[in-house]
Write a structure and sequence with these properties.
heterodimer, A: alpha/beta, two-stranded antiparallel ribbon, globular, B: alpha/beta, 8-stranded mixed beta sheet, 7 helices
Chain lengths: 358, 191
């Protein structure tokens, strides 16, 4: 099992902030922001020392919860400070990006980080459709097309044009190309049938997140079936599971902490926007419809003492088939860093050494 | 609407469908392969979808075009007909204004492949992103006059699968040749 630390940059606001997305940018405190990015590097030095394989960064906007609107900038900064960790961009939000630009920047990053890059391409959470005025009903199609264009830009040796549905270019010929050839290990992130099919067709990894093992297993099973249809079999490392983990000295303590967590949606939307988004943002798990996450907190699927959590990881490996765990060890957006530091220490000492061989 | 006709080409009777007015655009894919893309192109071009003559008899093809009253044409060919189109461009460069090759087959004639750099006509090669063979890349690699464009989510019958996308890029290329790489898309939302 490879283990990845999901780094969200812990911004500690000097005073309480509104919870609705978007959070007013006037409430941002530049000094607190500077402290958060310095803290990120200090924390990641510790993460590296504990023996994590990867650090992952994601793309979210207009909120202090995850302070990395450009994961590529985050990754470049991390790569310059830390020499061993593999850096996983999970990932650029493809549908509202310029795919050619993404291909160029990831190729730069892979080269500057000496081949330590892993890439996850995704559609983004429901709120992100509003970040750059993306029509949520076009998001799925734009994601598929954008991902295909990124792969083509990385691998096509000749200058080419792209006559797409949502993207059009007459001239593409990127420099540099990635250091890792033909391209960095890449995942299509998401549980949807479209995402799994895309991954299978292009021999990419598949990444699922947050849901219960049995539910996520429906997506990874579909992915494996599609891979077989395309004549190949993914390695365990090509199945990634991102999850919340709450590890404490005892089960009781962990469950008490879980009960104390707020049930706030990660990016809470105003009721009128939320309700409209529920009808416009269509999602599925291996073809079966599911609602976008616009209400309530994301589930925590690993909870308990180190012994309990190790067993849960074993079950995750069996049920989901995941060979990479991308872990959020304490809810982003909290105003206290201490629980995260304690969780990291406990995880590094009592869990990490025991899940390597799972 | 397309009208049917026949023409004698070096002793072979070739069938064709024709529609539209303007610069002649001859497609060697054969009338049975007519798609909605041809209809779209016929808004701008005089489109003639002609039976493909045998690949080696480009003299006959030139003869057929002459009998149709066509002096110089834009010439299009898909799959194996792409090779015929390239042969005519080499054989009678003055007759071919520009070439469009749709999902061209692999070139099996080493001599023809060797001569690709001599093709003078501006050439557009279209490949579908679902075409895993993508044999047409050799044209881009060997021909200085060649542009390569991938048509997303098409396999090999690009005109049938993505007619609007196909017709737009073909028409733009035939109108502007090399300069078609310069965007004319307008992005002003409100003046």
């Amino acid at each position: 099992m490879k283990v990845s630390f999901f780094e969200t940059v812990r911004y500690l606001p000097p005073s309480a902030l509104p919870t609705e997305w978007p959070v007013p940018s006037g409430a941002y405190d530049p000094e607190a922001g500077a402290r958060a990015y310095r803290g990120m590097i200090e924390r990641l030095a510790y993460v590296e020392e504990l023996g994590f394989d990867w650090v992952s960064v994601s793309e979210h906007h207009y909120s202090p919860r995850i302070l990395t609107p450009s994961p590529i900038v985050s990754a470049a900064f991390i790569a310059a400070h830390l020499k061993k960790l593999t850096i996983a961009l999970l990932g650029p939000i493809v549908p509202h990006s310029n795919p050619v630009r993404v291909a160029e920047e990831l190729a730069m990053l892979d080269t500057m980080a000496q081949g330590r890059l892993v890439v996850g391409l995704l559609r983004g959470t429901a709120n992100e459709a509003m970040t750059y005025d993306l029509n949520p009903q076009e998001a799925r199609e734009r994601t598929d097309e954008g991902m295909e264009l990124i792969l083509r830009a990385w691998t096509e040796p000749q200058p080419f044009g792209w006559q797409g549905r949502h993207f059009q270019y007459r001239t593409v010929s990127i420099w540099p190309r990635p250091l890792q050839q033909p391209h960095p290990p890449t995942y299509a992130l998401g549980t949807s049938r479209e995402s799994c099919d895309f991954a299978a067709r292009h021999r990419l990894g598949c990444g699922v997140s947050y849901g219960p093992f049995e539910v996520m297993a429906r997506a990874t099973r579909h992915y494996r079936e599609q891979c077989a249809r395309h004549g190949w079999e993914p390695t365990p490392e090509q199945i990634l599971y991102r999850a919340n983990m709450l590890v404490a000295e005892t089960d009781d303590e962990a469950h008490a902490q879980l009960r104390a967590q707020s049930n706030q949606a990660p990016f809470a939307l105003r009721a009128g926007v939320r309700d409209a988004m529920m009808t416009l943002d269509s999602r599925n798990i291996a073809g079966e419809a599911r609602a976008p996450v616009v209400t309530g907190a994301l589930p925590t699927t690993f909870v308990g003492s180190p012994d309990t959590v190790v067993e849960q990881v074993r079950r995750c490996r069996e049920v989901v088939g995941a060979g990479v765990l991308d872990l959020s060890l304490h809810t982003p957006g909290s105003t206290d860093l201490e629980p995260l530091t304690r969780a990291l220490e406990l995880f590094g000492r009592k869990v990490l050494p025991r899940i390597r061989d799972i | 609407m397309f009208a049917e006709g026949h023409v004698d080409a070096g002793g072979v009777r070739l069938r064709y469908l024709e529609a539209g007015q303007g610069t002649p655009l001859v497609d060697l894919s054969g009338p049975d392969a007519t798609t909605r893309a041809h209809g779209l192109l016929a808004r701008q071009f005089r489109v003639i979808v002609l039976d493909p003559p045998p690949a080696t008899s480009v003299g006959a093809l030139a003869d057929g075009l002459r009998r149709l009253g066509l002096d110089a044409v834009d010439l299009m060919g898909a799959s194996s007909a792409a090779e015929t189109a390239v042969r005519l461009a080499l054989h009678a460069p003055e007759r071919v204004r520009a070439l469009v090759l749709e999902a061209p087959d692999a070139i099996r004639d080493a001599d023809l492949e060797r001569r690709l750099p001599d093709v003078a006509a501006p050439t557009l090669v279209l490949l579908g992103t679902r075409d895993e063979t993508a044999t047409g890349r050799v044209y881009k690699a060997r021909m200085p006059t060649c542009h390569l464009v991938y048509v997303y989510d098409a396999a090999r019958a690009i005109g049938a699968e993505r007619p609007e996308a196909f017709a737009e890029v073909v028409a733009d290329f035939l109108e502007r040749h090399d300069a078609f790489v310069i965007s004319r898309a307008r992005t002003v939302i409100y003046p």
